[in-house]
Amino acid sequence: MAVAAPAPSSTPTRSRDARTWVGVLFGVSLVVLAAVSLFIGASSDASLTGVIAGDDGSLFLLAASRLPRTVALILAGAALGIAGLIMQMLVRNKFVEPSTTGVTEFAGLGMLTAMVFWPGMALPLRMTLVALFALAGTWFFLRIIRFVPVRQLVLVPLVGIMLGGVVGAVTTFFAYRLDLLQSLGQWSQGSFANVMRGRYEFLWIAALMVVIAWIAADRFSVIGLGEEFATNLGLNYRRVVAIGMVIIAVITACVLVTAGVLPFLGLVVPNIVSLIIGDNVRRAIPWVAGLGSVFVLACDIVARVIRFPYEIPLSVVVGIVGAGLFLWLLLRRRARAH
Amino acid sequence: MNKIRPLGTLALLAASGLVLSGCAGTADGADNADASAEATAETVELTFEYNTAGAEEEPVYEETTVEVPKNPENVVIFDMASLDTWGALGGEVAGAPLESVPEYLEDVLAEDAINAGSLFEADLLEIEASDPDLIIVAGRSAALYQDLSEIAPTVDLSSQGSFEDTLERNVNFIGEVLGAEDEAQAALDELSAGIEEARAVTADIGTGLSVMVSGDSVSALKPANGDFSGRNLRGGLVYDVFGVEPVLDDIEEATHGEPVSFEFLLEHDPDYLFVTDRNAATDAEGEQAAEVVLDNEIVHQTTAWQNDQVVYLDPTAWYIVFGGIETTQIMIDDILSITAE
């Protein structure tokens, strides 16, 4: 199933050596940021010296609070990046990801539905329901953009954002009528402040989706070439699209239930990676996962440090940085097109 | 969240009349019967500082004087604390945001009480149709003053000064309107004795931290430090009114207190944790109750948890109403319960 990388829209000009160097940089940043993340927190009990000395309090905090948070950030960042990458392959558009295609809003509607109709629902069931809503959202979006010409690059995310706006408005309306607006705000705001042992484990399911994405990577590369081309190569187009949809939906649901919405991440990370190494999905997956983790870890550190010992919501930092990068990518493309 | 307001207003207007037009708690008009019989053209004057700025802006106060009829028959009250006091002093209410009236105050409502809207929004058509003699707003509903004052004499009983100052002014005013000055004074005396008693209890309990649990996140609330505006007032009640010594005094405040991690609780480790369960206050079913959120291995390490000194405050009293005669008594009892155990 070896398929040549599709002609990238922006041919990477860097040499192999330069790419290796960037890869090493990502790897080192990941390790450094993870280490820094472990030792930032409201409690001074979990100091590096304390951990080395084997102090009980330090070790407890490290195991119960710090490690889960850092792991959760790495998993969420990697998974969201992959969800964006897969979505971009399915749609054949560089400007989509769950939060620009209405998938996140559908998931939010699922969350509200669970809260209203089955308030006492066990968490795994609630997650499943949210994932089903996200799946319906992905399906719905894919149906709609069939009517949009593939070449209309900016129209596709625009349609997605409008779809998201409509679904979001419906959710907000019901939340308003049912006095759940503030709760809606609570969980649509991405934050890892309450992540601790026993509260982030869903993200391992998201990690499993990353693995599945990796296994099916080449198929997604082919899908990215279009339905006709993929079918001509003997690929079961619909099945691969279905797998992609499930991956996107499950990742969106896991992150939403655990931490909330982290906008733009799935969009900017795959785009930056594509600038560096091109569009081969198999090659891109570890890069996207790594850069996604680095991005979220860095933003979370900023969110925690800026008003120490209080925190600002991570989604605010991710949103600002991500929106800036999104704009840059958009303008950069426009500039080239002319 | 402001952007949804127009939509909400529309919805509310559209749905008016359909929802809850005749569904009120039971009340007997006995108390009110002789009150209305002696209703004359007498009026009571109230001067208050009316905030002309928007809800999220720096307040701009304008002194306003309103004349209201004594013993009004038909009263619409948006502010739950005023509704509480109104009922405690023998009045009956003809209209209120029915869905927001806490259970323990339902007997204040007239049998055919109209639904006046929500805590934040007024159903102007319904209110106008009911032709009220007096409308009371405060706090959450203060922004409705302008619109409502065109319908009937309206007073804004929003907090001015400390919790006690506001309570005293409002109870005295309502007492005067209802012709129940003596009852008002008696209630105030009883409450201030109760607050004194509670302060005596909190004087020896060490440090405390007031937190709000909303969704599954925890926010730290701070003392008002002299600034009794809006949320500051509510967040600081545990410290400012009931004298609990804050475990740290520079707790900053965002919209609903400052979000903190569980580690924060362990690090500052107050002797007592006072918990307001916002989920329960706003009936957000399906949200985890505060008990569940706090029941985790990090909080288990804190002094407050280990000594069983986590105090769950009555969420409706402390978050929704916070003021009024009956509610203040509930708040006092909450604090006194520390020693009862």
Features:
heterodimer, A: 338 residues, mainly alpha, 14 helices, 0% strand, globular, disordered N terminus, B: 341 residues, alpha/beta, Rossmann fold, 3 domains, six-stranded mixed beta sheet, three-stranded parallel beta sheet, 38% helix, elongated, Bact_iron-sidero_bind (chain B), transport (chain B), Iron complex transport system substrate-binding protein (chain B), FatB (chain B)
Q: Concise description?
A:
Chain A: It is a multi-pass membrane protein. Chain A is mainly α and 338 residues long. Chain A has helices at 16-38, 48-52, 56-91, 103-117, 123-144, 155-177, 181-188, 202-215, 217-223, 227-232, 237-258, 265-277, 281-305, 314-337.
Task: Write up what this structure looks like.
The complex is a heterodimer of chains A (338) and B (341). Chain A is mainly α and 338 residues long. Chain A is 72% helix and 0% strand. Chain A is built from 14 helices and no strands. The radius of gyration of chain A is 20 Å and the shape is globular. Chain B is an alpha/beta fold. Chain B has 3 domains: 1-41, no CATH class; 43-158, Rossmann fold; 198-340, Rossmann fold, CATH 3.40.50. In chain B, 38% of the residues lie in helices and 19% in strands. Chain B has 15 helices and 13 strands. Chain B has helices at residues 5-15, 30-37, 80-88, 124-130, 145-149, 163-177, 181-202, 230-235, 237-240, 262-268, 278-281, 290-294, 303-306, 315-321, 325-340; strands at 43-51, 61-69, 75-77, 93-96, 109-115, 134-137, 154-156, 207-214, 217-221, 245-246, 258-260, 272-277, 310-312. In chain B, the strands form 4 sheets. In chain B, strands 8, 9, 10, 11, 12 and 13 form a 6-stranded mixed β-sheet that branches. In chain B, helix 6 (163-177) runs antiparallel to helix 7 and helix 7 packs parallel to helix 15. The longest helix of chain B has 22 residues, at 181-202. The termini of chain B are far apart. Mean pLDDT of chain B is 83; it is low at 1-39. The interface between A and B is large, with 42 and 37 residues.
